[in-house]
Design a protein that fits this description.
Mean pLDDT: 84
Strand content: 25-35%
Shape: elongated
Oligomer: single chain
Number of domains: 2
Length: 272
């Protein structure tokens, strides 16, 4: 039986710093555009002397620790970001500021590029001593679509429920990582899970239908015997032949997953 492996990191790794995490200030959530909740924080780079950072359109720069706006731009920007003894430098100096978030003015049309790869959502940058780290704050749906796009799946329309089943599985593992992150600044490491931002995103009809029909649906354990750890393990390997066969029979994604894994239930994530 063929098996389709899901590349979702069971990450450990180092924290970026031992200091208290500089999480987003509540006032930041009132900005013009922020990723749809729940969003996942993806580590893009760490321990870098400099990063090439570009924004493809109008954007604002915020301090996520204080919530204050540091700069506004009405067009694209491209600079090398560097750490200095007095804070981050990106096109200009931000004195006394060791963390910034670049927020595009609109969703979808504008992206933030880090070392040549464009990402949706917003990107936070942290200076720790004399090094930089970059973390992409991206909606769970966009993250799932990006990961799923780089996985070999059918493109014929009668297989949209098979694609939806895998979308639920990918989303379920990512949601567990949001709920129980093992790092203060990020939930998952892009290099370990194969996240490539907007560089690979499918937009064919079966894929878009599968993502829309399965939006915010995740698998959750229903028995004490099925722990979150074992849920992560079963999601790493799903029997693709069985999934495809059930989809050919007209079964929907929920039925397909319940047939494969009876000890789980489907839940819709509530937006908070």
């Amino acid at each position: 039986m063929k098996t389709l492996c899901i590349c979702l990191a069971l990450f450990g790794g180092m924290l970026i710093a031992d200091e208290p995490p500089m999480v987003a200030h509540p006032s930041m959530y009132k900005v013009r555009y922020m990723p749809e909740k729940p969003f996942i924080k993806v580590l893009l780079a760490q321990d870098k002397e400099a990063l090439k950072v570009e924004v493809s359109g109008a954007h604002n720069v915020y301090d996520p620790f204080t919530g204050s706006k540091l700069d506004s731009a009405f067009s694209a920007s491209s600079y090398v970001m560097k750490p200095t003894s007095d804070g981050i430098r990106w096109g200009q100096d931000f004195p006394g500021t060791y963390q910034v978030v670049i927020v595009p003015d609109s969703k979808g049309e504008i992206g933030v590029s880090v070392n040549g790869t464009f990402y949706g959502g917003v990107v936070a940058f942290y200076q720790v001593n004399d090094r930089l780290a970059a973390v992409n704050w991206i909606s769970l749906e966009e993250f799932t679509a990006s990961l799923l796009s780089s996985t070999f799946l059918p493109q014929d329309e009668d297989q949209k429920e098979a694609i939806a089943a895998y979308a639920i599985a990918f989303r379920s593992r990512a949601y567990e990582q949001i709920m129980e992150p093992s790092a203060a600044y990020w939930d998952v490491n892009a290099e370990e899970c194969g996240y490539k931002g907007r560089s690979i995103v499918r937009n064919d009809k079966p894929f878009l239908l599968a993502m829309r029909n399965s939006k915010r649906i995740v698998m959750r354990p229903t028995s004490e015997g099925l722990t979150k750890k074992s849920l992560a393990m079963i999601l790493q390997s799903m029997p693709f032949d069985q999934v495809r066969t059930l989809a050919d029979e007209g079964r929907d994604a929920r039925y397909i997953l319940k047939k494969s894994y009876p000890s789980v239930e489907m839940q819709v994530i509530q937006q908070t």
